[in-house]
């Protein structure tokens, strides 16, 4: 009996080398045309879009292609003095996701002193619930993504003491499933994106010993498909962003070598757009800035020597994490 696998096939005409210069131009010119349809439609996540672009360029050693002062100014305009949180763009409500992106950008520019980090810490503390979980914003959605954002922000601004860390850890562990993976809340399906958030959370909080690494790494390895690409959960198509979520989790657990790096690299390179630069979710699709960062990030984890070393927990250049004096843990086998 034949099993049908959701996968893609990679043709001979797809790129096989890193199109470095094209990606620099793709990111540096992103958003130059403020009337561009895609740019307008992504206003609701602008702050994260800037983080993806800034980080991608810095991994390529080309941070100078963007205007630091304009970006820091934009962050200050999005910083809400009342709640202490940061919004995706001016006039929007603050959210913990965009607060993390803003803090990451400020760290990359060594510009944390340009904002009130006490206010940011107060905002993160105000979102913690009695069971240790975190709301994403004042509207009350709970998700393990927000637990990751909370400890990532607080470790980068060195203010972890504003939350109840033991309870935060208990909540994340209550989202661990019998397959070794994690979902968005207790009893929710394991998903590679949420596994990254929970493994990253445990890396920041020095609790990696709570993981069943053998079981979890096995589940993550099963995400690799015959094309070499990785999916986020069983039966799904491969997507370049899972090259990051899965590979970063395996790297933190010291098990990057459990998947075929060669096949994954081939898949990621095939997702480059040979004309415009940038990476798409999968071979032959339109590129975007989100998949461009996670394609570059995954290639850096795989050791591409044209890229700066990326930190697997924060998805930021390692030299920035060192400068911030943050030491997320990894397992060394
Ligand atoms: C600092 C890198 C960094 C991240 C911040 C927000 C966050 C923390 C992590 C997000 C992790 C996550 C949940 C990723 C999944 C993203 C994604 C494309 C989900 C798509 O879900 P479906 O159901 O896709 O549409 P599948 O592939 O399951 O069909």
TrEMBL record:
Which key words are in the record? Metal-binding, Phosphoprotein, Prenyltransferase, Repeat, Transferase, Zinc
Task: Specify the domain of life of the species encoding this protein.
Answer: Eukaryota
Q: Domain named Prenyltransferase alpha-alpha toroid: which ranges?
A: 19-316
Manner of cofactor binding, per the entry note: Binds 1 zinc ion per subunit.
Does the entry feature the keyword Hydrolase, yes or no? no
Q: From which residue to which does any coiled coil extend?
A: none
List the CDD domains hit by this protein, alphabetically: GGTase-II (cd02894)
Known SUPFAM superfamilies for this protein? Terpenoid cyclases/Protein prenyltransferases (SSF48239)
Task: Write the Enzyme Commission number(s) for this entry.
Answer: 2.5.1.60
Names of the cofactor(s)? Zn(2+)
| Single annotated GO MF | metal ion binding
Instruction: Give the catalysed reaction(s), semicolon-separated.
Output: geranylgeranyl diphosphate + L-cysteinyl-[protein] = S-geranylgeranyl-L-cysteinyl-[protein] + diphosphate
The record's annotation in Pfam families points to: Prenyltrans
Q: Which InterPro entries match?
A: PGGT1B-like (IPR045089), Prenyltrans (IPR001330), Ptb1 (IPR026873), Terpenoid_cyclase/PrenylTrfase (IPR008930)
GO cellular component terms?
Rab-protein geranylgeranyltransferase complex
What's the family?
A: Belongs to the protein prenyltransferase subunit beta family.
What does the UniProt record say this protein does? Catalyzes the transfer of a geranylgeranyl moiety from geranylgeranyl diphosphate to both cysteines of Rab proteins with the C-terminal sequence -XXCC, -XCXC and -CCXX, such as RAB1A, RAB3A, RAB5A and RAB7A. Catalyzes the transfer of a geranylgeranyl moiety from geranylgeranyl diphosphate to both cysteines of proteins with the C-terminal sequence -XXCC, -XCXC and -CCXX.
Q: Its quaternary structure?
A: Heterotrimer composed of RABGGTA, RABGGTB and CHM; within this trimer, RABGGTA and RABGGTB form the catalytic component B, while CHM (component A) mediates peptide substrate binding. The Rab GGTase dimer (RGGT) interacts with CHM (component A) prior to Rab protein binding; the association is stabilized by geranylgeranyl pyrophosphate (GGpp). The CHM:RGGT:Rab complex is destabilized by GGpp. Interaction of RABGGTB with prenylated PTP4A2 precludes its association with RABGGTA and inhibits enzyme activity. Interacts with CHODL.
This chain's protein is named Geranylgeranyl transferase type-2 subunit beta
Species for this entry: Culex quinquefasciatus
For this protein's source organism, the top of the classification is: Eukaryota, Metazoa, Ecdysozoa, Arthropoda, Hexapoda
């Amino acid at each position: 009996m034949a099993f049908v696998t959701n996968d893609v096939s990679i043709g001979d005409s797809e790129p096989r080398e890193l199109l470095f210069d094209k990606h620099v131009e793709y990111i540096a010119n992103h958003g130059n045309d403020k009337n561009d349809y895609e740019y307008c439609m992504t206003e609701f996540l602008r702050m994260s879009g800037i983080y993806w672009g800034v980080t991608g360029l810095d991994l390529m050693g080309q941070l100078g292609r963007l205007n630091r002062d304009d970006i820091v100014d934009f962050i200050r305009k999005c910083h809400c003095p009342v709640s202490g949180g940061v919004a995706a763009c001016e006039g929007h409500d603050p959210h913990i996701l965009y607060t993390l992106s803003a803090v990451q950008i400020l760290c990359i520019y060594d510009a944390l002193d340009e904002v009130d980090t006490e206010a940011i810490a107060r905002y993160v503390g105000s979102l913690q619930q009695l069971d240790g979980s975190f709301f994403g914003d004042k509207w009350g959605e709970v998700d393990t993504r927000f637990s990751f954002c909370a400890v990532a922000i607080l470790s980068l601004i060195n203010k972890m003491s504003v939350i109840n860390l033991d309870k935060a850890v208990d909540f994340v562990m209550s989202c661990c499933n019998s397959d070794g993976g994690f979902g968005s809340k207790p009893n929710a399906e394991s998903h590679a994106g949420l596994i990254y958030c929970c493994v990253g959370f445990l890396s920041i909080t020095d609790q990696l010993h709570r993981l069943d690494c053998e079981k979890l790494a096995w589940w993550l390895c099963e995400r690799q498909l015959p094309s070499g690409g990785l999916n986020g959960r069983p039966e799904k198509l491969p997507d370049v962003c899972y090259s990051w979520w899965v590979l970063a989790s395996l790297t933190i657990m010291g098990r990057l070598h459990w998947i075929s790096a060669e096949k994954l690299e081939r898949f990621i390179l095939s997702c480059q757009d040979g004309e415009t630069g940038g990476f798409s979710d999968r071979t032959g699709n339109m590129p975007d800035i989100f998949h461009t960062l996670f394609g570059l990030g995954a290639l850096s984890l795989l050791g591409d020597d044209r890229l700066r070393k990326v930190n697997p927990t924060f998805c930021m250049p390692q030299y920035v994490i060192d400068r911030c004096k943050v030491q997320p843990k990894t397992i060394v086998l």
